[in-house]
Amino acid sequence: MTSRPLLIKAVLLLFFLISIKSTAQSIDIERVDPTSWWVGMQNPKLQLMVHGESIGTAEVKLNKYNGVKLTGITRVENPNYIFIDLEIKAKAKAGKLRFEFQNGEQSIARTYELRQKQNVDIQSLSQKDVIYLILPDRFSNGDLSNDKFADMADPESDRNNPWLRHGGDLQGIINHLDYLKELGVTALWLNPVIENDQPQTNEGGNMRSAYHGYGFTDHYAIDRRLGGNKKYAEFIQKAHEKGFKVIQDAVYNHVGINHYTVKDLPMKSWLNQWDEYTNTSYKEQPALDPNASQYDRLRMTDGWFMPFLPDLNQRNPLVANYLIQHALWTVQNFGIDAYRIDTYMYNDMAFMNACNAALKAEYPDLFLFGESLANPVPNVAAFVKNNMELDFACNLESTVDYQVHSNMLKALSEGYGWHEGANRLYETLVQDYLYQNPEKLVTYLDNHDEHRFFSVVGEDYRKFKLGLTWLMTLRGIPEIYYGTEILTKNFKNPTDAEVRKDFPGGWPDDEVNKFQKEGRTEIENETFDFVKKLISIRTTEKAIGEGDFIQFMPFDDGVYVYFRTAGDETIMVATNTVNSSKSFSTKRFEEVLKGRKKATYLMTGEELTDLSIIELNAYEALLLKLHD
């Protein structure tokens, strides 16, 4: 018979053994990012981020695969993550890697696809191009079945509410590629298409959806309300077939609050954290100011853009790898031609240089341009390749030209003066000496964040035509916002939604269809034809698409003249920025005219037989192609 003390010891030992077994953590895998990769990439390194219940507690084994080596494992604060470093050598072939994750007696396996890298035929952008900016949710609804999903954080779609989703999608854009081809634009920039599974947020007392797309929640999924990954690939293929280049909107600075890495943080340092919520100042000056406080600098770069847009810590190498690999994956997977980089100046510049360099090393023809809404001109130039000596040097080739945008509008809205009116634009362009490649800057009159141009000029059709003429003939790469070609108007009052109206005819129940000539009014058709003609000149005239830019100081209280030249081809752009007619001698332009006395009006095809005197009506622009 067993003694009582021995029995108690045996029972305690049994409970101890059971407790050990019961505390063994159950592991699971929910996702692996990147979702797939390629053999044959320039950089042989790949870092997988594996997420799942307690997966970080597991031992990891890669089954033998010729040419692929597991080089490191990184475990972080959150046991639901593990980072796996691989080296994919040149001899590796396409196939499926097999990983085994072991935690005590539990073992799970996961395969990972390596595909053979295919050549991506990237068409870079240049001055020959004209960009057309589309907000997908507001352009056209080609598939009514994907307007809303009950299992998403924002399950609503209502065209009667300016702040909610309206149902526009990629199929809608595909349906109107012929319209865009007729207009003549050459590159399509879509506001972000990546999944924004965000809840509605209270902004200014109104509940608003994330239809604009700037709060990513899954980097590797195109939002299914736009059509998903397959539809995006189809859109790009069909756009390329029709000769369009495709620009994707990249966001590195932040993600949405519903991103899985925010809902389940890999580590505290994944985000820029503050003791209490701290918004960015939206002022770039401290990043450039040699006398700035460290607090002001950090608040600008590390402060959150919005409470619902958590700020990523790009100084964390795991975050940096995650973002860079996604950028590479997107180009290789979809074959885009360019990135427009949102909120560029808020990012860590060392990270941005590394990201840009990685993309250009893999895809030398990929065009990269940022969004740096800075003031004055030197502050814009600081965030792109420039000719200045600063604490940091940016390797970005282009940026949106916020200063030319701003000063074109001022030149059209204020009286002529020493620094006012036409001199605003002239003096801005004088500062091109700050940029290494001013011809690559992306110029614009309006976009999804600005008042509509036609409204800004007081719906003065003369000023509208003058501004469009500047846009299509100045140096740089012009961008026009959807609807500009049919005189779409409005101010951001009370919200941005007012400048993001649905394109009439993009929805099956629309009463008018302005994609068709028959659906447009007489003035809208006149405007469409005017913009179409300007775009044609931009994309076909060598002097504008490839040539140099030569400007003369404004004179006669508002006349601004400049030339575009390429070899023997010369185009003269004469503009009058005041509300009175002007007549002037061309003698002062002889260095460019070179004795030529004749020209062709590019907009009408009419001939001018005497160039000695130019006459301009109020707010008129003339495009003259010189010849002997």
UniProtKB/TrEMBL annotation:
Domain Glycosyl hydrolase family 13 catalytic stretches: 133-538
The keyword Nucleus is assigned to this record: no
Top-level taxon of origin: Bacteria
Xref: SMART domains: Aamy (SM00642)
Name of the protein described by the UniProt record: Alpha-amylase
GO molecular function, one term: hydrolase activity, acting on glycosyl bonds
Segments crossing the lipid bilayer: none
Pfam families found in the cross-reference section: Alpha-amylase, Cyc-maltodext_C, Cyc-maltodext_N
One GO-annotated biological process of the protein: carbohydrate metabolic process
InterPro entries per UniProt: Cyc-maltodext_N, Cyclo-malto-dextrinase_C, GH, GH13_cat_dom, Glyco_hydro_b, Ig-like_fold, Ig_E-set
Key words of the record: Glycosidase, Hydrolase, Signal
Signal peptide per UniProt: 1-24
Record has Chaperone as a keyword: no
PANTHER family with a match to the protein in the record: ALPHA-AMYLASE FAMILY MEMBER, MALTODEXTRIN GLUCOSIDASE
Naturally occurring in which organism (per UniProt): Jiulongibacter sediminis
